[in-house]
Specification:
Cytochrome p450; 3-stranded mixed β-sheet; 3-stranded antiparallel β-sheet; 17 helices; globular; heme; Cyt_P450; monooxygenase activity
């Protein structure tokens, strides 16, 4: 089959319309020009670089035509052939894939500073706030300022203690809703997304979605978040051939900008309302938005917090906090329902610690050891970010005896490492007991298990994620029994994205274990 045929590139262009065909023709013509440049480069390229082994691919495009939608498992299959460090040529971009704890340690600990930058996608660069958030900002004073703001003012343990009442109220609201839906099918992922969204927006600006707006606003938010996430995950010609970025051949930039605009309009409305309240002499709120606005007005700051920074942090919280937490809870419930004996054991532990005449509180969580093991096992099998966020070295360096070139895109396949049969016994089995010795945690110090990453760029939202998932999961298990709708089969398979999703949404039937007065 010719590489210029439409079917060959069907993974890249998902719909078969006239615009897609024009884009494919433009790309195919561009290949002719790139081919000439490629052969010229091959004749004159430096000979001293010893890159890791990997598939040869095709001239100019490299391995682009062979990418699979389930990119994390595709990279795992390549590692079985080429080893734990491999080179993947994707157009003009050299990608290095790491699939072993020892090599992950070399990148994320031994050479942490050199790999502390990100390979920023073209779609992110095109967004107004994309280049100034905590995820993509280059390592340096600006990033350290953003990280400090997040940890000190938004996501630190002491701050999270002060907003516990928000998490408490929102999970109670959700349990009341589920009680009203007793014995009826419920899309659990959607409900958890909405619950986490309400927690985050309440923390940010005190705006909880209530009444009839609940489902409509949640769907709008979830769609926008999903579009942003899918744009970041979709292979983009603009990333692999930067000279073509201006054409946005796949429309990835346009789609992401549309989703980003939806969220931006919400943020603008909230910020404008807050500024008008301040001008009118109204009482100031004590939420995170108010803190950020005060920091923005601090003229003495060494690195000033701009309005773009402020909106980028709001975007990080909404996009980074909703899908990751709700998907993890959805995977956890699916795995537990697929292992009834484990689910029963978890409920027995919660009943023992909490009792049957009260609801779960966060103060109970340190005593729920088995539930903690369950959460760790869920994140081992289904890490929220299966490839973490790609790193990029400031300077070429040696990893595992091979050269990792400056500016290359470095994937750390945490998903594959955490399923490696040479490290984990029966790795595909859901067995929380493997964490019973308490030796493994989320700190990123052990590179056989690091679902939140490691080093300077470890996930800033880790404390909130740990609390939220544990607390909400414990509440769901304590308050209800769970069954599948009649005739339905359980599916725990995954769908790749920058955030890992459950391929088939979990639709379940709750049956109350507590009385409604408990909520």
């Amino acid at each position: 089959m010719s590489i210029f045929s439409y079917d060959y590139w069907s993974f890249w262009w998902q719909s078969n319309d006239q615009n897609d065909n024009i884009a494919l023709i433009m790309f195919s013509l561009s290949l002719v020009l790139f081919t000439v440049s490629w052969y010229s480069w091959m004749l004159n390229k430096p000979k001293h670089l010893l890159l890791p082994p990997g598939p040869r691919g095709l001239p100019v495009v490299g391995s682009l035509p062979f990418l699979k939608p389930e990119f994390h498992s595709y990279l795992e299959s390549l590692a079985r052939t080429y080893g734990p460090i491999l080179t993947l040529r994707l157009g003009q971009k050299i990608s290095i894939v790491i699939t072993s704890p020892a090599l992950a340690r070399e990148v994320l600990k031994d050479n942490d500073v050199n790999f502390a930058n990100r390979d920023v996608p073209a779609v992110t660069k095109a967004m107004e706030t994309g280049a100034c958030d905590i995820v993509w900002t280059p390592y340096g004073p600006e990033w350290r300022m953003l990280r400090k703001v997040c940890v000190r003012e938004m996501l630190g343990h002491s701050i999270l203690d002060t907003v516990y009442h928000i998490r408490q109220q929102e999970i109670k609201n959700t349990c009341k809703y589920l009680y009203d839906q007793a014995n009826c099918p419920v899309n659990l992922g959607e409900q958890m997304f909405l619950t986490v969204l309400n927690v985050i927006t309440n923390m940010l600006w005190g705006g909880s979605v209530k009444g009839k707006e609940r489902a409509a606003i949640a769907m709008e938010f979830r769609q926008a978040v999903a579009e942003v996430s899918s744009s970041l995950a979709k292979p983009n010609i603009s990333d692999f051939f930067p000279v073509l970025a201006r054409f946005d051949l796949q429309g990835v930039k346009k789609k992401a900008e549309g989703a980003n605009k939806k969220l931006d309009l919400i943020f603008d409305a909230v910020i404008d309302q807050r500024l008008k309240m301040k001008e009118g002499g109204g009482a100031e709120s004590k939420d995170f938005l108010q803190v950020l606005l005060q920091l923005k007005d601090d003229q003495d700051a060494k690195v000033p917090l701009t309005m773009n920074h402020l909106k980028a942090l709001l975007l990080d919280m909404v996009v980074g906090g909703t899908d990751t937490a709700s998907n993890t809870i959805e995977f956890a419930m699916a795995e537990l329902m697929n292992s009834p004996e484990i689910l029963k054991k978890a409920q027995e532990e919660i009943d023992l610690v909490v009792g049957n005449d009260s609801t779960v509180e966060e103060s109970h969580l340190p005593k729920l050891h088995y539930l903690n093991d369950i959460m760790k096992e869920v994140l081992r099998l289904h890490p929220a970010l299966p490839l973490l966020v790609p790193h990029s070295p400031n300077e070429s360096c040696i990893i595992g005896g091979y050269t990792v070139p400056k500016g290359s895109r470095v994937f750390i396949n945490a998903w594959a490492i955490q399923r490696d049969p040479s490290i984990w016994e029966n790795p595909l089995e859901f067995r929380p007991e493997r964490f019973a010795d308490g030796k493994l945690d989320y700190s990123g110090h052990d590179f056989s298990y690091f679902p939140f990453g490691s080093g300077r760029r470890i996930c800033a939202g880790l404390p909130m994620a740990e609390r939220t998932v544990m607390y909400f999961l414990a509440s769901l298990l304590h308050s209800f029994n769970w069954e599948l709708p009649a005739g339905e089969k359980l599916d725990v398979s995954e769908k790749f994205g920058i955030v890992l999703k459950k391929r088939v949404p979990l639709v379940v039937v709750p049956t109350p274990r507590l009385s409604v007065s408990s909520y």
